[in-house]
Amino acid sequence: YSTGNLLLLYFIATHYAELTDEEQAQMAEHSGPVWRKGFFAEYEFSSSLTKLDFISKNKSNQYVSGTECDQTIKSFGQGHGKFQSPNWPHSYKAQTSCTTYLLGLDDRYTLENVEIEFDQFDIDCNLASLVIYNASRIYDYRLRSRPSSPLLSTSKSSLFSNYYRQELDFKGNLSFCGHFKPEGRFVSKNALLKLSFIPTDRSGTNVYSSLNSGGKFQARYKFVKSYHQVSADEYDGTNTNTCNLSYYQSRALFGKFEPPRSSENDYFANSNCTFNFYPMNENSRLLIWYDYFNIVDDDLIQCPSDNLTYTYSLYSSSTFYVHPFRYCGYRNFPSPFLSVRSTELFRVHFRSNDDADAGLGFEGRYQFVNQSNSLFSPAICRTPFDSIVYVNETNEPSGNISSDGYPENVICEWSYVTSRGFQFLLELNLLQIEGSKTKDPPQGCQTAVLRIYSEGRIDELCGQQEEVYYFTTESNWFTIQFISLNRQTKELLRGFHIYWTVIETRTKSIDQRCSLSDEYFYCKKTANHSIGNFCIHRSLLCDGHSHCQPISNDDEHPSNCYMMIPSRVKQPLTLPSSTLSFFHQHLLLIVIIFVLCLTMLCIVFILICLLIKMKRRQQDRQSSKRRRTNQRDDLLLRKKSLQTYSDEEEEDEDDGEHHINRMEQAVTTV
């Protein structure tokens, strides 16, 4: 079809292009040139052809050259407008066939879908019909229950359904006719929406008088960004073109989240997308991990170009806290993340710049968990829902935390706090879990992470560490979080082990004395390390573990072991630790009691010896008395003369017996 009263056709014959197999066989058979059939066409001059004045004169609407009345409507960024049937506002000529192509943006910056809605519609079903290709009808709220035709093939999309709050069925074609406009709106499955007006008998030679008027229609169109193709519970109601997606524990306990992508499956340049997660209450936690990760950036540490970041707010405060890590790189997976206690809102922010590099983005998973979830097992370790452990710096100045091997599908969390004025020295002497942040290129921590929280600091660790890692907290608390999900390898790994010690830090401006010098030992810095001088409890001296490391080894030096009262010297005994601790703390008192007991035993021994000697004297006196009695019969004659002498002897004997009785009472008293 010409656009006016002139039409020019060129027929240009050049040298042969690539010959087909049939032409090559023909040349081989006839050994001559190949004659092609060319073309044969018919023409007609007519003054009743469809006029093109229904096509708007702007850069978005263009007539498709050579067609009867086809047009394209292109988007230059979230455009909208109206399009009509030929000869509008009058009915168009019968047996006219026109197609309208609505083309949304489809590049690395954005991907648009097309929505249309009819304002007027009047097409006789005996004459023609209007067909919409690869689209789905969107009913109004009151009409959502309207059934669809079971005769047409459908392709259901849950992504669109989340956005439009109804089930969408994308059909190969939707055909309409009649005197009432089609209900609802229609949305394209991709960046192209095609509408064709098809007459019932276009090839007929006879045109009836009733076909002089074919009908008419008018519709509104709108190009919308395809953010609604990303799964979410809720979208930004104020601006549907903003990538602001929300996920609620009250609606779904788990699901996926990912950035919007172009038709080439790459994420968009200049993208700014926020994913909002809402736990149900203070006792709920959010767990996030990733199945795929490819965010392009040359700097894998700072990630200044394209990156993924986290922020969150608590029930107790409206302030948003920033997680200090940025994530980017190919397969440099972010570590599994469990939100902190009392998180009210958790946000994942995805940003990309305007450069030519792009990747597939990421495929993230989320799960809202509570204390009854199988990932928390009190039989294996402490859970994030357990209470905080208070450490008495005198009775328990050190301890250790371990994963007890490398368990799978478990989340552990230990939280410790001690008195104000004290800090913790942490010694990580074993780390063997999956992942790596130090390899080139890094692998990230896809399935497992050891995360250490302290005042103003968060450490994320994974992989296998050969050297011992030391650091001190800035305040009197720390939290150890260990997350292990489905392992990807069967490598024999041992998990982690951390040794902690309560310390009192010393600055250079203070002399080399501890605030409680009688109970604490001063660790003087001798090695070149970022950790400064500090004090440890004296009970840790010479216990077999160097608590002054990494700055010195003074606490295990033999010259300092005499200061270990109270002490915790380890002995190869089978006594309980509580018994050993009692003896160590009361050693001086035990020695004094032992000396007193030994002195009393000596005194008792001396008294017993004296008693034995007195008994022997008594026996000698009794034997002497018996001899004198036997001699009385022989000395009857001398009775009178010796009476006086005998009385005196008896008095002496009575005095001796009384003295012996007093000695026996004294010994008994002792």
UniProtKB/TrEMBL annotation:
Residues 1-17 form the signal peptide. It comes from the Eukaryota. The keyword Membrane applies. Residues 69-224, 243-369, 381-503 form the CUB domain. One of its GO terms (cellular component) is plasma membrane. The keyword Transmembrane helix applies. Residues 646-655 have a biased composition (Acidic residues). Disulfide bonds join 445-462. This is CUB domain-containing protein. It comes from Adineta ricciae.
